[in-house]
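note to self — DONT lose this again. spent like an hour looking for the file last time. sequence + predicted structure for the chain T wanted, 229 res
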Amino acid sequence: MKIIVLSLYIIFLSFTLYSQCDTLRNETHIFWCEEYTLQFSDFQDTSRLAKHLEWCESKSLCWGAYTGLFSVMDIPKKEKDQQRKEEVIYFAPAFELKTSYRLTSDSLDYLKQIIVFDMYELAARKCRIQLDSLYKTNPTIGIKGIFFKSVEIEVNANLGKMVKAYTNEVYIQKLEGSFLKWRTLIDNLLNETKEFQTTTNDRLRFIQNKPIIKGYIKAPKVIGNLFEK
């Protein structure tokens, strides 16, 4: 049954593999998009580095997705506008092309790593959800900016715990059915949070590496972690 489910999932991916987003990548990164699934060839490092070979041998980590959560806050350039126009905060999961590696042609090895990219998308959505919740509680200009980094740091910490738990179950303990359990969990969470998914503007902000709203600049300073004890 497990083999059949995995085969069906790979077939599903083959239909979406070549779907294109209007904005997707720059020279170094691919940014998460619902309509695009990472391809084998996106894992560009095939150099067989010693550390990757060791991970493959000892933990079956024969593929590695190097991912990160990009974030930035833009504010109105004119001081007078900063009192009446909201700050704009962008998040986008980024997959690094040149450092993400593959040592095999195994489809399951590939599937086990693209789920990590989806975990980073969940983190981006959680940041947006928490900042929106803060704004609803206190709908004032600047409130999101005050808690921007605090929320991001907290969410990243929880993301790290999720990736660690996934790695432990799937790669270290190699628990029966663990990959399908995690794939189902992540798919359900993505479906529940579609309203907060990464958008074209989120991706475009990092692809262009400059504000996309006229009259806005990158915030020169941001407040640090207010949740730190």
